[in-house]
């Protein structure tokens, strides 16, 4: 569909992203404006637009903003500061099938050479089924599995990593393991008491793989004879 919503090409940060979410087609993008934040600081704002069934796009909807008033930023407020000086701004948008939300992110690829759990100085927003938005940091505590950082790294560009921003994006299940196949060496099993019994036919529905918050994995099986 022709994208006939209002986008200021001169202010665009990174690459706009299309996403099909909750049976609707959305466009997400980031714009930087000069001097309209606290103490005349710059702002970066995340916008969305929705295509209706008549193939018309809605007016830009402001989701969230950050500012470059770095002198007054403390603690977690400094997490996004490098986005205002980055030479390699990246964007990503995908559906987290594990937690059932859409994620939209603007993040810094400068000097990144390998994956890190510390995040990438990102401005990331999660969107749930009712379009409630929440700011989320890609970094996590030491020892935790970082699904979001791993997803963003797949699309990062820097001085040494190229062509990732042109990849097509979709839902993601990073480090989400599942049983792909079940093979039985024998249909007979000796129970040690009643001699041999015949096992029922087993398939992937009899087993599940569960991943804990600390990244540990357990395999569970259920067999009814």
Question: How would you characterize this protein structure?
Answer:
Pfam families: Neuraminidase. This is Neuraminidase-like domain-containing protein. It comes from Salmonella enterica subsp. enterica serovar Newport str. CFSAN000835. Residues 13-104 form the Neuraminidase-like domain. The protein is mainly beta. The protein folds into two domains: 12-172, no CATH class; 177-225, no CATH class. The chain is 3% helix and 35% strand. It has one helix and 13 strands, in the order E-E-E-E-E-E-E-E-H-E-E-E-E-E. The strands form four sheets. Strands 8-7-6-5-9 form a five-stranded mixed sheet, with no helix packed on it. A hairpin with a 4-residue loop joins strand 5 (89-96) and strand 6. The model has no long low-confidence stretch (mean pLDDT 84).
For the structure shown, list the relevant keywords.
four-stranded antiparallel sheet, 13 strands, five-stranded mixed sheet, single chain, Neuraminidase-like, mainly beta, 225 residues, elongated, Neuraminidase-like domain-containing protein
What's the gist of this structure?
With about 220 residues, this protein is mainly β. The chain has one helix and 13 strands. It comes from Salmonella enterica subsp. enterica serovar Newport str. CFSAN000835.
Which class of secondary structure composition applies to the elements? mainly beta
Give the N-terminus to C-terminus distance in angstroms: 55 Å
Helix fraction bin: under 10%
Overall number of strands: 13
The coarse overall form would be elongated
> Can you tell me the residue ranges where pLDDT is under 50 for at least 5 consecutive residues?
none
Largest sheet: 5 strands, mixed
Strand content: 35-45%
Task: Note the total helix count.
Answer: 1
> How large, in whole angstroms, is the Cα Rg?
23 Å
Rounded mean pLDDT score: 84
Q: Structurally, how many domains make up the residues?
A: 2
Order of strands, main sheet, comes to: 8-7-6-5-9
The ordered H/E elements are EEEEEEEEHEEEEE
């Amino acid at each position: 569909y022709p994208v006939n919503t209002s986008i200021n090409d001169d202010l665009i940060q990174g690459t706009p992203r299309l996403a099909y979410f909750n049976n609707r087609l959305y466009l997400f993008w980031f714009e930087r404006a000069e001097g309209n934040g606290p103490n005349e600081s710059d702002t970066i704002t995340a916008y969305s637009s929705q295509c209706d069934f008549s193939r018309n796009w809605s007016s830009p909807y402001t989701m969230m903003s950050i500012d470059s008033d770095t002198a007054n930023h403390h603690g977690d407020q400094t997490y996004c500061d490098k986005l205002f000086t980055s030479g390699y701004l990246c964007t990503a948008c995908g559906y987290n099938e594990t937690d059932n939300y859409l994620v939209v992110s603007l993040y810094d690829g400068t000097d990144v050479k390998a994956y890190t759990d510390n995040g990438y100085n990102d401005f990331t927003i999660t969107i749930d089924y009712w379009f409630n938005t929440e700011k989320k940091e890609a970094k996590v505590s030491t020892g935790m599995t970082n699904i979001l950082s791993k997803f963003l790294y797949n699309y990062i560009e820097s001085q040494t990593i190229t062509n990732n921003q042109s990849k097509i994006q979709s839902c993601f299940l990073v480090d989400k393991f599942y049983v792909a196949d079940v093979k039985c060496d024998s249909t007979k099993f000796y129970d040690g008491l009643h001699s041999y019994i015949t096992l029922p036919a087993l398939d992937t529905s009899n087993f599940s793989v569960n991943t804990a918050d600390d990244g540990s994995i357990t395999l569970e099986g259920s067999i009814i004879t």
